[in-house]
Amino acid sequence: MAPHTEQLTRSAVRLRGLTRSFGGRKVLDGIDLAIPAGQFTALLGHSGSGKSTLLRAVAGLDHQVEGSGQLTAPERVSVVFQDSRLLPWRRVLDNVLLGSEGREAAAKGREALAEVGLKGRERAWPSELSGGEAQRAALARSLVREPELLLADEPFGALDALTRIRMHGLLRELWERHRPSVLLVTHDVDEAVALAERVLVLEEGRIGLDLTIDRDAAARGEYRGLLLAALGVTEDVR
Ligand SMILES: Nc1ncnc2c1ncn2[C@@H]1O[C@H](COP(=O)(O)OP(=O)(O)OP(=O)(O)O)[C@@H](O)[C@H]1O
């Protein structure tokens, strides 16, 4: 019944003609998109362009899109948001485990916390963590589910610039080690280019630009101007 249960081989995510309207206004207007398994994709777009709407649809959180087109996504999907959404009344390890019990689960949870650099903080309360640490815990919580697809909606948007750079390194490292497909929603052109293999720009309800990122060209800053132009942004002359 649910498209999410379909067995996928080559593509992790496939959208065909996906449309979503709110009050008669089309936010997503027939989106066609295939994301190969294991690809790191970033989705850029102005505020209100429909990035979160698209992500929610792929996460299976939006039942209204059913029937509007075709949507397939893997079964094991984890979502990370701008705020960590840790439960304040549970210790960090219990937040990561959420629902799973037993020694094996606890060992996996500890391992995931160690991977994100939170070894020794298992028994801390969420209120004792910094913003960056809380996002690390959120990443650990998503990892223990061994997701085939990681959806991240502005996961570093609330962090200071230095913490954000460290988190970029961590996310790339985790992706290289575990190789889930990643769909990262961001406003930040530099973040998209620094992290992703492919950058999509959402405009007027459609994918307006679909760029494959070459690491060397990215290091030379070759995509920045193109992406800013696609977003209709002109940089001030410095
Ligand atoms: N539940 C809803 N009811 C009505 N309108 C909605 C709803 N969810 C989203 N919208 C509208 O759809 C449009 C796209 O919203 P969405 O949150 O997907 O944009 P976004 O690109 O993620 O924006 P931002 O970058 O600011 O988070 C907006 O105009 C928003 O007001």
Explain the overall architecture.
The chain is of the alpha/beta class. The chain has two domains: 1-76 and 150-232, Rossmann fold; 81-146, no CATH class. Helices cover 32% and strands 25% of the residues. The protein contains eight helices and nine strands. The protein has helices at 51-58, 92-97, 103-115, 131-143, 161-178, 189-195, 215-219, 224-230, and strands at 11-22, 25-36, 40-44, 70-72, 77-80, 149-153, 181-186, 198-203, 206-212. The strands form two sheets. Strands 5-6-7-3-8-9 form a six-stranded mixed sheet, sandwiched between helices. The protein has a three-stranded antiparallel sheet with strand order 2-1-4, covered by helices on one side. A hairpin with a 2-residue loop joins strand 8 (198-203) and strand 9.
Number of domains: 2
Main-sheet strand order equals 5-6-7-3-8-9
Strand segment count = 9
User: Based on CA inertia axes, which overall geometry fits?
Assistant: globular
Distance between the terminal alpha carbons, to the nearest Å?
55 Å
CATH superfamily label of the largest domain: P-loop containing nucleotide triphosphate hydrolases
Helix content percent band: 25-40%
The value of Rg in angstroms is 18 Å
CATH class of the largest domain, please? Alpha Beta
Model regions low in confidence, pLDDT < 50 over at least 5 residues: 1-8
Bound molecules: adenosine-5'-triphosphate
Beta-strand portion reads: 25-35%
Number of helices: 8
Helix vs. strand class: alpha/beta
Give the SSE string: EEEHEEHHHEHEHEEHH
What would the CATH topology of the largest domain be?
A: Rossmann fold
**Name of the CATH architecture of the largest domain:** 3-Layer(aba) Sandwich
Q: Average pLDDT across residues? A: 91
